[in-house]
Specification:
The protein has 211 residues and is of the alpha/beta class. Helices cover 38% and strands 13% of the residues.
């Protein structure tokens, strides 16, 4: 039975648009895009959801904790689940926060490190080989209650799709630009509305079938 591992941040976890800072909420399984993707793939697939709110591709977060760094998180996920058949990686939104002073190239470097881990001989042999789909998150909008954390992020995030696409081609992995399918919520400029989760889940399933 093929297994899909979805590795990402709050938008993979299923966090709704933030209206009140500090309030924890999560969409149900009927809405979250990984679950939509699972249903779209059809009977016979299993899903391992690995979405952590605040996760970055490569930065230790001085506020939320060093465990937000995806480099260690991916190794843990790949050693916790399996054998998997497909891995999706969708990170980069938190990497463009103001406190990391990142550039699009720095964000890509973090993503490249994750793909290095996933394509390593150790991980590929552990799972008997698996395919990778790199998903570029849609651009950030600087609105809502957490806009201060994302000062300057709109411009930085718009530089990611072309870099992710070229990198995916160079590494021989699948690619999906989520910004071609959905947009962030106007409520907080970061997270996705329920309808967007549905559209993204279908698009990811379609991309997986083309791997």
């Amino acid at each position: 039975m093929p297994i899909l591992l979805t590795f990402g941040d709050s938008n993979t976890h299923g966090t709704p648009p933030i209206e009140v800072r500090g309030e924890y909420r999560r969409f149900g399984a009927d809405i979250r895009w990984p679950q939509v993707c699972l249903r779209q793939l059809g009977a016979g697939w299993e899903l391992a959801e690995e979405g952590l709110p605040g996760r970055t591709a490569a930065f230790d977060d001085p506020v939320m904790g060093d465990h937000m760094n995806g480099r260690s998180g991916l190794r843990i996920a790949l050693q916790s689940h399996g054998p998997i058949d497909v891995l999706t990686i969708m990170l980069g939104t938190n990497d463009v926060k103001a406190r990391f002073a990142s550039t699009p190239d720095m964000v890509l470097a973090g993503v490249a490190g994750l793909v290095d881990v996933a394509q390593s001989l150790e991980m590929q042999q552990r799972h008997g080989g698996f395919k990778i789909l790199l998903i570029c998150p849609p651009p950030v909008e600087e609105v809502g209650p957490i806009m201060g954390e994302f000062y300057g992020a709109a411009a930085r995030s718009r530089g990611l799709p072309s870099l992710y696409r070229a990198f995916a081609k160079a590494r021989g992995i699948g690619f999906l630009d989520a910004g071609d399918v959905i947009a962030v919520s106007p409520v907080d400029g970061i997270h996705y509305e329920a309808e967007a989760h549905g559209k993204l889940g279908v698009a990811v399933a379609d991309a997986i079938t083309r791997l």
